[in-house]
Structures are given as structure tokens and as C-alpha cells.
Design goal:
14 strands, five-stranded parallel β-sheet, Rossmann fold, 20 helices, Gyrase A, domain 2
Length: about 550
């Protein structure tokens, strides 16, 4: 049960009942009744400011409206009391008996606790990372990876049918530059003076890969026609780079349903089909030997090149074909692309592309994430200690662990720039939020191991009446609404806040309430608290699991 939804229905019924009895004048109800958690917990568990919104159409004081609405509220089994507060809030307090009964509900739901059905099995594709396969994944890709992967998990918990996808840019001029760079580094490893092209890739990883190819294939490619050698050595190198990316992402706990090849868009005629739709719609024209898309027809500031004057399709042409494939051929209801903030200028033309293909642009959402600044203490880390070059995703995971990488990169909204302190991420102290959250789970595991000989299944949860106990239950019950908030707003960082808040509530409960007591007369409360602790373990493990983090039993 979503408490907010039930309260919204009850408030709507109360307003309509008051109108029918003439206590409130006729007016249209708001499209959505606002229900929120009060900023001050002493004001209650939930509150609605709807009376403030109704003051103008009702021509009445908000406080008077609130009193009338409150008097018409139907009885709700989970509401203990209703209070009206200035200037016109209606505050709701949850029933303590209902709160304690939710411990049993959580234990019964087990690993499915937190699942909600708002998605109705709509097919959603989340495409993330999709870095050019021209070298190892760098640390910036890690934020993309974490945002996309946790968002996919949240959407699954919210009832969507989700597919995770990595788009492999294996076509175009940059792949040609990769092939030529690999050939040059391979030849150099065999003592041949072969220059790296000016637009090639200068990183040390290319030298390493060229050396590997020389070791594995000796002079094989030197004895071939150059173009044949470029294609063959390039394909081998590309496979190795992609395989390395898969291994690095797996270390971070990422696994995809589909790795999609850009080249397949051209091999399977999807590019031609998409271009034909645009051509028939009159959205394509030629100028100066190039093919252009009439983006200005859709309010974009300038038209965009689709095919360059040399006859090669540009990135935007591939994007159009790719999204034609996603929406029209594979039939996804919604698509979410996770991109770096440097792609912001690309968003308007993507919406224009959707309209030109005859698709609702609101079916495509592009999440833009800001850059990450790595720090070690107070010092900014710019270069790899190993190579003096880019800092790779794998280096950061190897240093601080996958859980720390995931949590820290998730802990701020995607549109916020963030600092990632490597030293803090390694600390085993309460200052490190990862340690603080995971230690709560490990502490629960320790308690349950200590009490393994106590049969607490018959525990009476109605005995859980103290504020630390009830406060912990309240926090546990916020997981479903956190999933809803994160799914609706495509904002998975809410999970990071929630997990920390839940861990804090547990640590406070543990400080104030002795769980296992051997004192006479304490057997009943011990069993009740063990039930509470077991339920909390379920919720905390679920929150960690949705973030792709482990739930350690020992620390």
C-alpha cells in the first residue's frame, strides 16, 4: 500500500463530501493532491497543504478549509490522528498499532519489499556508458555506469520491463583512426617505422595493445595488403577493447542485456529505413555536397548535417537510425539515454529527430550527468599513477572497491558536479557513509547470529512502542515511496539518501534499545525486537541491492 496515494484519495473524498453538503463551494479539485512529509517530525508523519491551494477558488481562509476537510475525512486504518495546523496544513500521524503490524508485513514480503506496480510492465530501455571503444573506460564513465545501472534497477522494482543496453560505436571515422593507430603501434612493436596518424590515439594503452598483437600474430599483418591488414587487425583490437570494457564493468557489478553494434544499423538497412522516413517527410535536403536534416522545422536553432560531403554518415545519422531501431523496430515504450553534460546541445535535435520520425518526443529522456573531480584528501587527482595518463575506471575500483565507487557516484543528483574523495572512500569509520550503512547490516547479522538459539517467530510486535522502535519502522516503510520517487523523477540518488537515513535510524535504535536481554521478564520484548531487527535487515539489504552494493554480514 502506498500511504500517499491512500491519503490523496481520502482528502479528495473529503473535499467532495464537504462540497456536497454545502460547507465548501463548488470548484475543480487540483490535478494532484499534495501529500508530503513535514520538515519537522513533531508535526506528524504526513501533511497536506491543499487548503492553501484552495483558498482562492473557495474564497475562504486556508485554516477554515483545513478544518472542514479534516472533519469529512473517512476513517483510515493506518491513521492514528489528524490535526489542523496554521496556516492551513492537515497533519496525519500513523497509528502505532498499524506501524508495528508492518514489521510482520515486511517479514512476509521479504526480498520483494519495496516493489511497486506503477510501471505496469511498460517496456523501457536504459542505454548507458556507451563510451567510444577507442581505449579503456575512464573514471568519468563510472558515474554514467552507476546512474544508468541503478536507475534500471529502480525501474524494475517499480514494475517496468527494463532492458539494459550498451551502444558500441564501431562505425565511422573514429573507428578508422583506431584501426590505423593499432596498425602503427603493432608495426612499431616489430621494429617498423610506421607513424601514428595525426588524428590517431596517443595513449599508452595503444602501445600496450599493439605490443600484444605483435606478440600474438608476429608479422602476419605486415605481409597482407594494407587495407586488409587494417580491417583485420582493427577488428581484433576492437574486440579486445570491448572485452576489456566488459570485464571492467563486471568488476563494478554491471551486466548488460544487450551490446548493440552501430555498424549493424548499416548492415541491416535500418539506416536506410530511417532516412527514407525523413526523406518522405521532407526533412532532408542537400547543400554543398552534404545531406542535411531540417532541424529548424522543429524549433532548433540550426539544421544538422546527416551525411558529410565525402559521403560518410555523421554521428547524428547513426543516432537517428539507432532510435528508429529502438522505438519502431524493437518497440520500446520509453527510452532513457544517459549522457555526459557536454552533450547538452545535442538534446534539442534529438527531440526534433523524434518528431520527424513520427514519435512522441516525451518517450525519449536524456539524462545529463556532470563531471566527477577525483580527490585524495584535499588534493585533486588528475593523472594515473600507473601510466601518467587518464585515470581508468578499473584503477579507481581496485583502489576503493566497487561498493564505494557506486555509492559515492550515486550520492549526488546527476546534474550536480561532485568531488569523489578516494581517502574518505577507504576509511572504516562513521565519516564514510558506505562503511556507516554497511556496518548497520553487518551489526544486524551479528545480532541475529548471537540470538540464533532464540525462536523469535512468535514475538509480539505490538510491544514495540518506544520512539526508537517506532522511528525505525517509519524509516523502513519509506523504501517503497523512495522507489516511486526515484522512478518517476529518474533520480536514483534518492536511494543513497534513503539508505543512509535508514542506517542512522537503526544505529540510533541499537544505541537506545537493548535487543537481546537475559533479564527476567525481558523475553517477550527481546523476541519482538529480534523481529524488528530481522525486518530491518531485509529493508537495508534491499536498499543496498538496488544500488548494486553488497550487504556484508561481517565487518
Amino acid at each position: 500500500m502506498m500511504i500517499e496515494n491512500e491519503l490523496q484519495k481520502a482528502i479528495s473524498q473529503a473535499i467532495q463530501a464537504a462540497q456536497q453538503q454545502g460547507e465548501l463551494p463548488a470548484f475543480d479539485l487540483p490535478a494532484e493532491i499534495p501529500v508530503e512529509h513535514p520538515k519537522q517530525e513533531e508535526m506528524g508523519d504526513f501533511a497536506t497543504p491543499v487548503s492553501l491551494q484552495l483558498a482562492r477558488p473557495a474564497h475562504m481562509a486556508p485554516l477554515k478549509i483545513a478544518e472542514i476537510v479534516a472533519s469529512h475525512l473517512p476513517t483510515l486504518p493506518f491513521v492514528g490522528s489528524v490535526e489542523v495546523a496554521r496556516p492551513g496544513f492537515i497533519n496525519f500521524r500513523l497509528s502505532e498499532s498499524w506501524l508495528t503490524s508492518q514489521v510482520e508485513e515486511i517479514l512476509g514480503a521479504a526480498d520483494s519489499f519495496g516493489n511497486v506496480g506503477i510501471g505496469h510492465e511498460q517496456r523501457v530501455q536504459v542505454e548507458y556508458v556507451s563510451a567510444n571503444p577507442t581505449g579503456p573506460l575512464h573514471v568519468g564513465s563510472a558515474r554514467n555506469a552507476v546512474i544508468g545501472d541503478v536507475l534500471a534497477s529502480v525501474l524494475e522494482a517499480a514494475g517496468y520491463d527494463v532492458q539494459r543496453e550498451y551502444y558500441v560505436n564501431d562505425a565511422g571515422s573514429r573507428i578508422r583512426a583506431l584501426y590505423e593507430t593499432l596498425y602503427a603501434r603493432y608495426a612499431q612493436a616489430l621494429g617498423i617505422d610506421e607513424p601514428v596518424p595525426e588524428d590517431g590515439y596517443q595513449g599508452p594503452y595503444m602501445i600496450e595493445l599493439g605490443t600484444e598483437l605483435a606478440r600474438d600474430y608476429d608479422r602476419r599483418f605486415l605481409d597482407m595488403f594494407r587495407e586488409d591488414a587494417l580491417q583485420e587487425i582493427g577488428a581484433i583490437g576492437l574486440r579486445r577493447i570491448i572485452s576489456q570494457a566488459q570485464e571492467d564493468l563486471a568488476v563494478l557489478g554491471l551486466h548488460y542485456d544487450h551490446w548493440f553494434s552501430e555498424q549493424s544499423l548499416y548492415e541491416n538497412s535500418q539506416y536506410e529505413k530511417a532516412m527514407d522516413i525523413l526523406r518522405r517527410g521532407g526533412y532532408i535536403y542537400e547543400k554543398e555536397g552534404a545531406v542535411w536534416f531540417r532541424a529548424t522545422d522543429f524549433g532548433v536553432s540550426k539544421d544538422e548535417v546527416l551525411v558529410r560531403s565525402n559521403g560518410t554518415p555523421g554521428y547524428f545519422a547513426s543516432d537517428i537510425a539507432y532510435h528508429y531501431n529502438k522505438f519502431i523496430e524493437r518497440g520500446f515504450d520509453k527510452v532513457i539515454d544517459v549522457w555526459g553534460a557536454d552533450h547538452q546541445g545535442h538534446v534539442p535535435r534529438m527531440r526534433a529527430m523524434m518528431q520527424a520520425l513520427g514519435l512522441d518526443p516525451d518517450r525519449l529522456t536524456i539524462i545529463l550527468y556532470q563531471l566527477v573531480t577525483l580527490k585524495r584528501g584535499g588534493e585533486v587527482v588528475r593523472l594515473s599513477k600507473r601510466t601518467g595518463d587518464i585515470i581508468t575506471l578499473r584503477e579507481v575500483v581496485d583502489e576503493v572497491g566497487a561498493d564505494a565507487v557506486r555509492y559515492f557516484l550515486l550520492s549526488r543528483s546527476a546534474d550536480s558536479q561532485m568531488d569523489f574523495d578516494l581517502e574518505l572512500a577507504k576509511q572504516q569509520s562513521d565519516e564514510n557513509p558506505v562503511y556507516y550503512i554497511q556496518y548497520a547490516h553487518a551489526r544486524i547479522s551479528s545480532i541475529l547470529r548471537f540470538a540464533q538459539n532464540i525462536d523469535y517467530q512468535s514475538g509480539d510486535v505490538s510491544l514495540l512502542t518506544s520512539e526508537p522502535e517506532l522511528g525505525l519502522i517509519r524509516r523502513m516503510l519509506r523504501l517503497p515511496e523512495t522507489v516511486v520517487t526515484a522512478a518517476i523523477n529518474l533520480a536514483p540518488h534518492h536511494l543513497a539518501y534513503y539508505a543512509y537515513d535508514l542506517a542512522s535510524a537503526f544505529h540510533g535504535f541499537y544505541r537506545d534499545c537493548r535487543v537481546v536481554s537475559s533479564e527476567p521478564g525481558e523475553e517477550a520484548i527481546t523476541k519482538a525486537r529480534l523481529k524488528l531487527v530481522a525486518a530491518c535487515q531485509i529493508v537495508l539489504a534491499r536498499a543496498l541491492g538496488l544500488m548494486g552494493m553488497t550487504a556484508p554480514t561481517v565487518m
